[in-house]
Sequence to fold (776 residues):
Amino acid sequence: MNLKHKLLLVTILFSSICFAQTKVVEDFKPSSVNQPGKEYPMVNSEGRVRVQISAPEATKVQLDISAVKYDLTKDENGVWTGESAPQDEGFHYYQLWVDGAAVPDPNSLYFYGASRWGSGIEVPAKDQDFYALKDVPHGKVSRHMYYSETSKSMRRCFVYTPPGYETDLNKRYPVLYLQHGGGEDETGWSSQGHADLILDNLIAEGKSVPFIIVMDNGTWAMPRPPRNAQQGERPAGPWPPEGWADGFMNTLLNDVIPMIDSKYRTVPDSEHRAMAGLSMGGMQTRVITLAHPEVFSYVGMFSGGSISVEDLQNSPGFKDNIKLVFISYGSREIENPRPGPWGDPKANTQLLKEAGMNTHFYVSPLTVHEWQSWRRGLHEFAPLLFRE
Amino acid sequence: MNLKHKLLLVTILFSSICFAQTKVVEDFKPSSVNQPGKEYPMVNSEGRVRVQISAPEATKVQLDISAVKYDLTKDENGVWTGESAPQDEGFHYYQLWVDGAAVPDPNSLYFYGASRWGSGIEVPAKDQDFYALKDVPHGKVSRHMYYSETSKSMRRCFVYTPPGYETDLNKRYPVLYLQHGGGEDETGWSSQGHADLILDNLIAEGKSVPFIIVMDNGTWAMPRPPRNAQQGERPAGPWPPEGWADGFMNTLLNDVIPMIDSKYRTVPDSEHRAMAGLSMGGMQTRVITLAHPEVFSYVGMFSGGSISVEDLQNSPGFKDNIKLVFISYGSREIENPRPGPWGDPKANTQLLKEAGMNTHFYVSPLTVHEWQSWRRGLHEFAPLLFRE
Fold:
């Protein structure tokens, strides 16, 4: 085989690979979180996201999802269409770029994340049944406005009450305080998180006791980690800096919990109170339950660090009061967990168990630092709560 | 004065007029419904709306509000800025056009109207205090999922319960069923409508008795009126066609009301039940209460037609059962109300009063067929309800 033939062969092979990479399975269906009556965006069985937008005078339109931008193609009517590479199962934030303007897709529903209201899409997951809307008894989600003495302002929270809460007027319920992540807000868990549907379904299957979930806004000016920490190294000093979670901690302990205990039929003691959160909300859960283990009995951290044996030594009462420490991560983030003062979450959790605490460690298959990991985290965590 | 001088004078006069028309008062402030931390869109004391968006590669960007498009201007950094003519007080839907793509403004909160989730803006109204968020006792708004036998599907509604509902467990409450307009949905009244805040404030002032508000989705395939009706003439045949509201009527009577009476501490009789709606929701209120006057006692129609003396003759029981017919319009739409089988709403309502019914007719000052008219309508209507 001479050089010319070799080059030809290489060209053929390379073309085949490229063709294989870009071949798209044409079984796209509208996303389940489209606006009413909208055909696009669509998702196919590979998890590719296809969007479409009319922009006759535009010269460049892109789909921006999972930190990658994909060029769309314009047809003769000025309608742009294009798709992404296959995405992980579950929910993803995304946006469009139209001639340099970053805008929401006008066809999708909107969700708060990345510090903005913007587009979201669902890539159907094999286990989506656990957060599906079914004809089972449903609880409800209530929007509460309340005055916070701590922040001297009106605040908002959402409260899930389980099925039966409205009619069993003599029954009192335990409470889970459940926090969102950085750049998200109090709407996340009952919107893209489906916390209400997860609990409705678990309760219908007899897998979880009914409890109340309170979702407040934990947004806090979180300082950026030092550059070396962003690259995965342990920062030199304590990180996050001492006191970073005090604002939300004070609001939670002094305003939210007393308000909930006065307005809802709770069992207002620590044995019937849990706290959990995702990412930043997990980090807040860690700080707040270590500082006040007398207030809670169950602790959950989804992609948000872990509790170390060292932490126990610095928090008198934590080991005796806390009945469960639940730690979870997405499988695709667990090999490189976010930097923090907690070290390796899996090893930490194992050491905590060896130190005599009841711990659970859960890994969500094939997911990153996104909502599918956290939905699954809650789904694993909830059945473990408030078992006498 | 020769021709040259005349032309110069005309030019000067014309320039002055143009200058006067386009002079903008520079006291813009961020809209109250911006996304957190966003400076734009802004509104000035004239009611002009100023938007800003970065679109470095775009050649044409427009603000589209109240059915008028305004060109924006690009600066050296590719940031486009521009403003509208003065807008009426209150809430307006709007969108941006970027090189032919109609998109939501990425800086505003989003609202469902015009059959889409899109941008909204508040032009501060002189009477905005009646729907302001204040440190008064607050009710809450709950999101309910329920199965509808009528539509054989899961449906969603929102329910406002007044302050005290959670703690006065022996008290039962009357209910207002309150409907949105065409192209809107069950989120409208508790979002841009501020029904919850209007009631919280009225109750705090002692001006309204506490009651429950149920907001469901009344979207119905409403046929377009014939061309002559769109031009203000009375359509030849019955309009809207017989049966157009049956779908929602059946859901309301057979699914929603029984569900609410079973899950909430209502007074489940007609004397403690009201129905009202805006635009299409008012037209549905008319059809449903005329067909089933035994179910309700109070009727409200905001920019959605009226009840005629002829209607009374066709609806045995309406005159005896209904304690109040409340009709309202925006002042800027009342001279040309939407076509329908009800004729002139003001004259109709006067004739209804003369026929012996308790009626109220309210006109919202300086507003069109928009939310400020309907907020004011509810604010006038609520204090008249459920007075024994």
The first strand of chain B starts at residue 29 and ends at 30. The domain at 129-222+240-384 of chain B is CATH 3.40.50.1820 (Rossmann fold).
